[in-house]
């Protein structure tokens, strides 16, 4: 939608569709990882899964600006589309559901009951995480332009803007492994 658009309104609609899709994907993939690794090494599995967004951000900031500058902004969108299409193809070909034998069963809870059960502390953590991500995404959106305005090249601007994500690539799997080995997951949540 975005690559073929000719107006701001269509681009905005395409971004909305992509955002909804990304949100659904994050929830579904986390559920898949949790069901596959529920009884073993779930911390490491989730840690590896949690490198996907930082890695995508780093690759995008470091390469898409240069590709757009060299070819066109649509070229960077088409490359993103191709990577997503390839990932979808591999998922459809390779993914198999885990057997449900011995799976824990639970009664579905209503939305209001689940919200009430979560408690205020969980909602405060969620709110702080959402606000942190809003700030970080704003930084990724505007930092490259700022660095370019300060005389940096497009490539250097993307590299500088990607620095906040580099630690996540290393730390997410390590913290996941530590949670599996020593436990105390809430301590790691609190420190995070």
Short recap of the structure:
This protein has helices spanning 8-36, 42-49, 52-70, 73-94, 111-149, 154-182, 185-191. It has 192 residues and is an all-alpha fold.
Task: Tell me about this structure.
There is one protein chain. The protein is mainly α and 192 residues long. The protein has helices spanning 8-36, 42-49, 52-70, 73-94, 111-149, 154-182, 185-191. It is globular. It starts with 7 loop residues before the first helix and ends with a helix. The model has no long low-confidence stretch (mean pLDDT 85).
Order of helices and strands: HHHHHHH
Total E-strand runs = 0
Structural class, judged by helices and strands? mainly alpha
Q: How big a fraction of the residues is strand?
A: under 5%
Shape category: globular
What is the mean predicted local confidence, pLDDT? 85
Element layout with pairings:
Elements: H1 8-36, H2 42-49, H3 52-70, H4 73-94, H5 111-149, H6 154-182, H7 185-191
Features:
192 residues, single chain, mainly alpha
């Amino acid at each position: 939608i975005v690559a073929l658009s000719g107006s701001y309104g269509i681009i905005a609609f395409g971004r909305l569709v992509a955002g909804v899709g990304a949100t659904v994907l994050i929830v579904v993939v986390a559920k898949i990882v949790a069901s596959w690794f529920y009884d073993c090494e779930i911390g490491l599995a989730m840690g590896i899964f949690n490198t996907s967004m930082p890695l995508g951000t780093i690759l995008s900031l470091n390469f898409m600006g240069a590709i757009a500058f060299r070819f066109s902004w649509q070229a960077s969108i088409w490359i993103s589309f191709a990577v997503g299409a390839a990932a979808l193809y591999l998922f459809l070909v390779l993914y198999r559901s885990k057997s449900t034998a011995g799976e824990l069963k639970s009664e579905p809870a209503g939305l209001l009951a689940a919200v009430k059960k979560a408690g205020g502390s969980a909602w405060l953590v969620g709110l702080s995480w959402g606000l942190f991500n809003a700030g970080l995404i704003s930084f990724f959106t505007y930092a490259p332009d700022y660095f370019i305005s300060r005389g940096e090249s497009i490539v250097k601007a993307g590299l500088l803007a990607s620095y906040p994500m580099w630690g996540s690539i290393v730390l997410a799997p390590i913290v996941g492994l530590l949670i599996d080995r020593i436990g105390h997951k809430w301590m790691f949540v609190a420190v995070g």
